[in-house]
Amino acid sequence: MEIHDSSRFRPGRVFGTSNPERVRSGQRDYMVRIHEDAAFRERSFADYPGNNFVRADEGHKWFFHRFGMSRTRMPDGRVICIAGEHEDYYDPDFCIYNDVVVLKPGAGQRSVTETNGDIEFYDYPFEVFPPTDFHSATLVGDKIYLIGSLGYLSSRRKDFTPVFLLDTQTYRITELQTHGEFPGWIYDHHASFDEPNNAIIVRGGYFDSDSRSKIERSNTTAYRLRLDSLEWELVDPEDQHSRYLISQSPELEARPEWDHPTTFRPSRVAHRLLETCPIFFDVAIEVSGVRVMLEGSFSEVKMLIEGELPRDTQQQLIQEILNNLRDHRGGQWRVEEVESFRHEQPFK
């Protein structure tokens, strides 16, 4: 794989020396626990005002507050967090990571806390696993398939789709050489396991069409990667995406706090809550292999369905969200199908 020179990174940037390299770091442990445990975070802000994120015992900064990081919850309770970026490109602390952080929550916990649970850190050589963000992570057996990335501008290739394989037992990462109808340099998409075909289906997101001029387009094509042959193929060249604006009418003055997990999850439509939610949205769920994203703001809700659902399923999903809004927010709500949302721009 063609990648740019690692010497271009800011001073202090650290890469692994083996595949993987186990890292033991008090600073990293602290940064993860402060991110995962809200009560610990509040106390830390009080104890270290304006300085809690630079308390370090190493010669470089490392951050766990990231965009485009995947989180995969394993059957044994582990949560495997992969790569992602901290801050934006113009910030002095901007960094796209190429590491793996394994959270091992204590009994009865969904994540680690200030005092409970274990954390493991793994670094990788630049040449083995380049800086990656806004990828998808699909669990198949004890392997996680990593597809796509936004990455640094100089690393993007419009005629290529990066695919890596993480072994969740050894944490070794291997690059896979795929062929066929590539999606291109895709990112911020959704990938689901197609068990009958032993394949991964990729929908939605964005891809670069010309990295030099920073032009990107929304992906409206469904792709399939067959895992036996590592061949890409088209599933649907015009994958249907539906956008709905759900607004309160008339708007009420009283606005209770949003309870996104409760309001945005249907009770009857079969679905799973996705661990990773794209920027600009509050909740992402998967329904029949299709990603559904919702965002609530004041008196309106935006819903994006990235793929075609059975008509009855889609209508029932919308109706359940409406019922939840009436129960939790009050008032009457109306639904309007729209062509686009104002904020619908890829995260640079």
Helix content: 10-25%
Strand content: 25-35%
**Strand order in the sheet with the most strands:** 19-20-21-22-18-23
For the CA atoms, what is the radius of gyration? 21 Å
Distance between the termini: 23 Å
Q: Which secondary-structure class do the elements indicate?
A: mainly beta
- SSE string: EHHEEEEEEEEEEEEEEEEEHEEEEHE
Output mean pLDDT: 86
The number of E-state strands comes to 23
Tell me the domain tally: 3
Oligomer: single chain
| Continuous helix count | 4
* General shape: globular
Low-confidence stretches: 1-7, 48-59
Largest sheet: 6 strands, antiparallel
Description:
It is a single chain. This protein has 348 residues and is mainly β. It folds into three domains: 13-125, no CATH class; 134-239, 6 Propeller (Neuraminidase); 241-338, 2-Layer Sandwich (TATA-Binding Protein), CATH 3.30.310.200. The protein has helices at 26-36, 38-47, 260-263, 311-329, and strands at 21-23, 70-73, 79-86, 95-104, 118-123, 136-140, 143-147, 163-167, 173-175, 179-180, 185-187, 190-194, 199-203, 206-210, 215-218, 222-226, 231-236, 241-248, 272-273, 283-287, 290-297, 300-306, 333-338. It has a six-stranded antiparallel β-sheet with strand order 19-20-21-22-18-23. The protein has a five-stranded antiparallel β-sheet with strand order 1-5-4-3-2, with helices on one face. A five-stranded mixed β-sheet has the order 10-17-16-13-12, with no helix packed on it. Helix 1 crosses helix 2 (38-47).
Can you describe this structure in just a few lines?
The protein is mainly beta and 348 residues long. It is built from 4 helices and 23 strands. The chain has 3 domains: 113 residues, no CATH class; 106 residues, Kelch-type beta propeller (Neuraminidase); 98 residues, 2-Layer Sandwich (TATA-Binding Protein), CATH 3.30.310.
